[in-house]
Amino acid sequence: MYKLGFIGMGNMASAIQEGFINSGYIKADEICGFDLSEIATEKAKARGVTPLSDGHEVIRNAEIIFMAVKPQVVEKVVAPLKEDLKGKALVSMVLGYDFAKYETMLDPSTRHLTFMPNTPIAVGEGMILLEDQQTLTDDEYDFIKKAFESAGSVEVLPSHLMGVGGALSGCAPAYIYMVIEALADGAVAQGLPRASAYKLASQTVLGSGKMQLASGLHPGILKDNVTSPAGSTIKGVKALEDGGLRAAFINAIEKSMGK
């Protein structure tokens, strides 16, 4: 019996598997899964995950099932598996499918939890949101929560905030990569080699985030601590304000929620 079984092993599921395996909390040979993609299946095999023939086999052979398919196909995938999922534990990361929606899709005996991860879970720096409504047993919930904590940080949110929380932590890595790229481009334009520019920008983003988390200080205070009067930083801050940086990020979160 495998501890975890994945139905769908695309990019996000792969990141979760890598995070669990790299943390040492779950071994690769304790994970099985199924994906229609041969490429995804081969990548899973390469990290030591056992590929199975279909979703039915995954459910039969795993203690906790991860639903990791695209939103547009989830109901088509779940319907033929409803009987198999009776009495089982299901954790789902399918966008838009919260506790209430799964209650209408699953047998009452199926225990379930909706979560929202982000790709940095692959390197142990994930941000994982757990919906506060769930029906896992205490042992199942404790096991899953610790698994996520082994590969990142966990936040429990009420159902009505999962959407905006997911828009922030789930979509923002793409925005931050754009920030890293843009900062590096600016430095390259001034003569810094590309590899060094990416390293400096990425480590600066990582360090700044960790400093805010460790200190608990308002980001504005940390920004002020770096900006000396008439110094180079405040001139750069003004340039960013002139470019509408804050408004752009605020609008990005709004648009990512479909508004």
From TrEMBL:
Primary localisation category: cytoplasm
Pathway assignment: Amino-acid biosynthesis; L-proline biosynthesis; L-proline from L-glutamate 5-semialdehyde: step 1/1
PROSITE patterns attached to this UniProt entry: P5CR
Gene Ontology CC annotation, any one: cytoplasm
Residue ranges constituting the Pyrroline-5-carboxylate reductase dimerisation domain according to the UniProt record: 161-257
Any single GO BP term: L-proline biosynthetic process
Location of the Pyrroline-5-carboxylate reductase catalytic N-terminal domain: 3-94
Primary enzyme class: oxidoreductase
GO molecular function, one term: pyrroline-5-carboxylate reductase activity
Catalytic activity field: L-proline + NAD(+) = (S)-1-pyrroline-5-carboxylate + NADH + 2 H(+); L-proline + NADP(+) = (S)-1-pyrroline-5-carboxylate + NADPH + 2 H(+)
Sequence positions that bind NADP(+): I7, G8, M9, G10, N11, M12, A68, V69, K70, P71
Localization: Cytoplasm
UniProt cross-references to NCBIfam families, sorted A to Z: proC (TIGR00112)
Function statement: Catalyzes the reduction of 1-pyrroline-5-carboxylate (PCA) to L-proline.
Protein's recorded name: Pyrroline-5-carboxylate reductase
